[in-house]
Amino acid sequence: MLKLFNTLSRKKEEFTPLGDVVGIYTCGPSVYQYAHIGNFRTFVFEDVLVRYLRFKGFRVKRVMNLTDIEDKAITTARKKGKTLQELTEYYARIFFEDMEELNLLPADVFPRATQHVPEIIEIIKKMMANGYAYRGKDGSVYYEVSKFNDWGELSHLKLKPGKKKIKRDEWGEDSAILSDFALWKSYELEDGDVFWETELGKGRPGWHIECSAMSTKHLGTRFDIHVGGVDNIYPHHETVIAQNFGAYGENPSKYWIHARHLMIDGRKMSKSAGNFFTLHDLLEKKYEPMAIKYLLFSKSYRRRLNFTLEGIKEAGEKLENIRGVIDRLKYANGIDDAEKISMKAMKKFQIAMDDNLDTGKALKAMEELSHAVSLIQPDKSSSENILKTFRTMDSILGLRFF
Ligand SMILES: [Zn+2]
Ligand SMILES: [Zn+2]
């Protein structure tokens, strides 16, 4: 029985799917810059979630959006003298390469916000018709937060009145909490050539509406799991719930799952502190992708993880040990009957994964198996058995042992 921690209830809940196919939506990367290693913690976790659900016999449809339009993307494109599309195409390609380096399975759909403007207009019109959205004096369309009774249910933040209206995509946790926010942004000169002529006027979508429109289009108005990093909880996911409620009268996702932040050398990662890593940097410096992934797995996604270069090295050594053991097993012809070892290890592995996907404990079970095997001379049939167990574990973790 798989249990998942649902941010909505603040509890571990038994996972029961809504229908035949488990629908999963992830807020994917903003493709105007390299994704940082903290983003990848979320993506790596999500990959394991999908693989484990499949191992348990569920069918999964997974959607990961690419945010290819938002305030910062437009500013960055202008600064670099590129069109928005040139900029986002470049970073999308890098992102796909990085995913492959980490052996992350591709999503079934990678929708892009700029290709969903009709769906975005559609959902905004529904919210307006239902009385949850209105046109402001500046021509933008805003969500009327006071109309939505459950505002704040996901984030559990203390709500306080903020500015009347917010047009920008991001606003902090401490300011402007109870404010109406823009769904459709009327055109401003800074937007340059980034605009659409639509029924709602000339302008562009806000960031938050994009995920409501794309998840609804590809997974329906109600699906199983929405995954993101904890920094997505407020305001982004809170707005997604409000928007879907305004348009369709329900919270779009049954489970809301969030991965914790990474600490870098014991501190919060930030560009100004100089402890900011992108996966792209690390790979260029020849750090091994599987060692990076191993380190990201070393603690449950719900716990803080301290990411250090030293940690990547240590993870690499652990990987090497296991690889050595697996290699030896391929040619093993010893005398020890070791059938039970792998059964025990697999059981431990599954108990860890069933408990809200505790990859830290699952790795321990794999390491223990490897260690136990290194101390004996397994016979041929035990070796085959143990190899099969490693294969199964690897199909879930994706560490490229085979
Ligand atoms: Zn999300
Ligand atoms: Zn999103």
Question: Can you tell me about this structure?
Answer:
With 402 residues, the chain is of the alpha/beta class. It folds into two domains: 19-263, 3-Layer(aba) Sandwich (Rossmann fold); 309-397, Four Helix Bundle (Hemerythrin (Met), subunit A). It is built from twelve helices and 15 strands. It has helices spanning 37-55, 71-80, 84-101, 117-129, 207-219, 233-248, 279-284, 289-297, 309-330, 339-354, 359-374, 380-397, and strands at 3-6, 11-14, 21-26, 59-64, 133-135, 141-143, 161-166, 178-186, 196-198, 201-205, 223-229, 253-259, 262-264, 267-268, 305-307. Strands 5, 6, 7, 8, 9 and 10 form a six-stranded mixed beta sheet that branches. The chain has a four-stranded parallel beta sheet with strand order 4-3-11-12, sandwiched between helices. Strands 14-13-15 form a three-stranded mixed beta sheet. Strand 3, helix 1 (37-55) and strand 4 form a beta-alpha-beta unit. Helix 8 (289-297) crosses helix 9 (309-330) and helix 10 (339-354) runs parallel beside helix 12 (380-397). It is elongated and about 80 Å long. The model has no long low-confidence stretch (mean pLDDT 94). It binds zinc ion (2 copies). One zinc ion is lined by residues 27, 211, 226, 228, 232, 237.
